[in-house]
């Protein structure tokens, strides 16, 4: 199992486009990918609507949890996306 937390630092937060990009990236992998909000909600990380339902705003943390055979590759791809296309902090 792999997990990593991200602080959303973008002024436009995790809105539709970043949520779609994140879901598009996660769907490439067979591993189970869960996204947990800082208030404890957990959703399917492959569902853009579920990602939007977390209502993640600026300065909130999310944790991405990955479990499966390709978890290492999935974490690398998600980390690259989060640090380039989606404005996050550590």
What report would you give on this structure?
α1 packs antiparallel against α3 (71-84). The protein has helices at 16-26, 48-53, 71-84; strands spanning 2-8, 32-37, 42-44, 61-67, 88-89. It has a five-stranded antiparallel sheet with strand order 3-2-4-1-5, covered by helices on one side. The protein is built from three helices and five strands. The model has no long low-confidence stretch (mean pLDDT 90). It is globular. Helices cover 34% and strands 28% of the residues. With 90 residues, it is α+β, with helices and mostly antiparallel strands. The relative contact order is 0.33. It has a single domain (2-89), classed as Histidine-containing Protein, Chain: A (2-Layer Sandwich).
What's this, in brief?
The protein is an alpha+beta fold and 90 residues long. Helix content is 34%, strand content 28%. It has helices at residues 16-26, 48-53, 71-84; strands at residues 2-8, 32-37, 42-44, 61-67, 88-89.
